[in-house]
Each structure stands twice: as structure tokens, then as C-alpha cells.
Design a protein that fits this description.
By secondary structure, this protein is of the alpha/beta class. About 40% of the residues lie in helices and about 20% in strands. The protein is built from 10 helices and 13 strands. The protein has a 5-stranded mixed beta sheet with strand order 3-2-1-4-8. The longest helix has 25 residues. The chain is globular. It starts with a strand and ends in an 11-residue tail after the last helix. About 45% of the residues are buried.
């Protein structure tokens, strides 16, 4: 068995899987991300121990615990180099959790956990060069290059959402990155501002767009076009065999996806799209937890040439 945890802003989701990444047990609960690292590790370790006890998984059959969270993660050293949710820098999270849980712990950027799952068990399992882009509260990317997850020198590869795409905004000192222009919270903010609505969710905006609301349609279209431009950059730089577009924001439907795909084709260099298979699939919380569990499973099948493997 493997156990996976995905940590979000105000809660964590946890799953026990078999070695085919099939979820056998699932749990979620609120968690205070304002805690200092020690207190947070105490709370997360208690959550993991509780799930193990309730599911009665034999401890000697549990190969390890994978934890996915947003930020720059140096997985081979078990280090959170920077976490936007926690405001942490250089926190040895894997060692701190391992001391509390008594099991091997692997930490990784959350988008990379989904990327590993797609490569081992999902749409990308028969491909050696795959890019996975997630759309939601943020916009992130994971990369399989030559059959292996690519993390970069410091574990920060794939921060697609932080690429600047609006030079004029940047010159004015305004937020000008892909994420600041096109992520779900920005779509919600634009709709609220234009429509004069005090509160909204992505779901209510989708419903409004489907009912003909021009402000909802405009907010989703602008987001889709910007994301499509970003995806064209991914193709132009990496030329992968497969591009998987995932995350909670994929459920926004045709009012976001159609302009996204149009922009992707429009801005990709001539001929490069011909060899790329594009897959669009929504992601729920259980998939994120499953992805974290795949960190453990992936270590078993990882190339022995890769150094720094925390599980021997």
C-alpha cells in the first residue's frame, strides 16, 4: 500500500492506495496552514495515523507516505524551499513528518504528483515526453522528459503560471503573469467587478455563461485565451508527445476551453501541433491525493541512475 496527502490552503485530503494507485480509503479534513512547521507536522501526522488506524492497513504493508503541496519543493532533499500558502522557506518537511509518523516520507510539488500518476497509470503511460498543465486556483505544470519527471536544478521547474505575458502591466507595476491574469480567482474577480455581484464561485459563473451572461462569458474567454497562449509556449519549448490539461478549472467548459484551444493552435509554431496529442480531463480532490500516493509508487519504478532516492 501507499498513502498520499495533498495539502491545500485550509484543508488536506488523504488516500490509501494499492500499487496500481487505486484508491481504497479516502479522508479529508480542515487543517490550519497558519501553523508553524512543528505544529503543522503534528496535525498532519495525527491525520495520517488516524487514517491508518481506521482503515486497519498493516503497517508493514505500507511502503511510505507521499505529500504534495504547492510551491518550490526540493524533493530529493525533502525540503520545502518556498511555500506560498505557508510562507515557509527551507523547511525540512519530509524529515519532520517521518520522525512523527515512523514511515518513509516523500514530498513533492503537487502538480508533479499528478504528472507522475499520469505517466504511471494515466493517459501518458505510453509516452516518454509529456507535459501536464493544471488550471485552478493557480496554473502549474509538470514535465516528463525522456521518461523521467523533470524537476530542474532546484526543484522549481514548471512554474508556468509565473511567466510574464503582459509587458505593459508589468511596466506599470501591476500583476502581469499568466496566473495573475487567468487563474480561477481572477476569473471570479473580473466577473464580480463587471457584473456588480458581491459574491460568486466558478460554478455560478459557468452557469451564468451557459445562460447567456456576457460578463461571465467574457471572463472565461479572456482566461482561456491567456492560458492558450501559455500552452503554445509549452509546445514551442518542449514539443511533447502529449499535453494533458487538468485541474479543477477544466470544468469551466466550452466558454473557457474553446478560446483556449483556439489560442493554443494560433500561437504554436507551424507544424509543432501535428505531433501533439491534447487530452483534457478534470481533477478532483481524490485525484490529488492519489497523485501524492503515486510518489511512493513511482520511487519503486524510478530509474536507479537517479540519485537522492529517499526510499532504498
Amino acid at each position: 500500500y501507499a498513502l498520499g496527502v495533498k495539502v491545500m490552503e485550509r484543508r488536506a485530503v488523504c488516500a490509501v492506495t494499492n500499487f496500481e494507485a487505486r484508491v481504497l480509503h479516502y479522508h479529508e479534513q480542515a487543517i490550519d496552514t497558519s501553523h508553524k512547521p512543528e505544529a503543522f507536522c503534528d496535525a498532519l501526522a495525527a491525520m495520517v495515523r488516524d487514517l491508518i488506524a481506521r482503515t486497519q492497513v498493516p503497517i508493514d504493508k505500507l511502503f511510505g507516505v507521499g505529500v504534495g503541496l504547492a510551491g518550490v519543493i526540493y524533493s530529493n532533499k525533502g525540503l520545502v524551499r518556498y511555500s506560498p500558502f505557508f510562507g515557509w522557506s527551507d523547511v525540512p518537511l519530509a524529515a519532520m513528518l517521518q520522525a512523527r509518523i515512523g514511515l518513509p516520507v516523500i514530498i513533492e510539488n503537487d502538480v508533479n504528483t499528478l504528472t507522475i500518476t499520469e505517466h504511471l497509470f494515466g493517459a501518458g503511460r505510453h509516452h516518454n515526453d509529456v507535459a501536464v498543465v493544471t488550471i485552478g486556483r493557480g496554473i502549474g505544470m509538470g514535465m516528463i522528459i525522456n521518461g523521467q519527471l523533470y524537476r530542474g536544478a532546484q526543484g522549481g521547474a514548471g512554474e508556468l503560471g509565473h511567466i510574464v505575458v503582459d509587458v505593459e502591466r508589468a511596466r506599470r507595476g501591476e500583476a502581469a503573469t499568466i496566473e495573475a491574469i487567468a487563474a480561477d480567482p481572477v476569473v471570479i474577480e473580473h466577473f464580480q467587478t463587471r457584473n456588480g455581484q458581491a459574491s460568486a464561485t466558478l460554478r455560478t459563473i459557468i452557469e451564468a455563461a451557459q445562460s447567456g451572461d456576457e460578463y461571465a462569458q467574457m471572463a472565461l474567454q479572456e482566461s482561456g485565451e491567456t492560458i492558450g497562449m501559455a500552452l503554445s509556449t509549452v509546445i514551442n519549448m518542449l514539443s511533447p508527445e502529449m499535453l494533458i490539461i487538468s485541474g479543477e478549472g477544466v470544468v469551466a467548459g466550452e466558454h473557457r476551453l474553446r478560446p483556449m484551444l483556439d489560442a493554443l493552435k494560433r500561437y504554436t509554431f507551424d507544424g509543432l501541433m501535428d505531433a501533439v496529442q491534447v487530452v483534457i480531463e478534470p481533477t478532483d480532490d481524490q485525484a490529488w491525493a492519489r497523485g501524492a500516493a503515486s510518489l511512493v509508487i513511482g520511487k519503486v519504478f524510478e530509474s536507479p541512475l537517479i540519485e537522492g532516492n529517499p526510499i532504498d
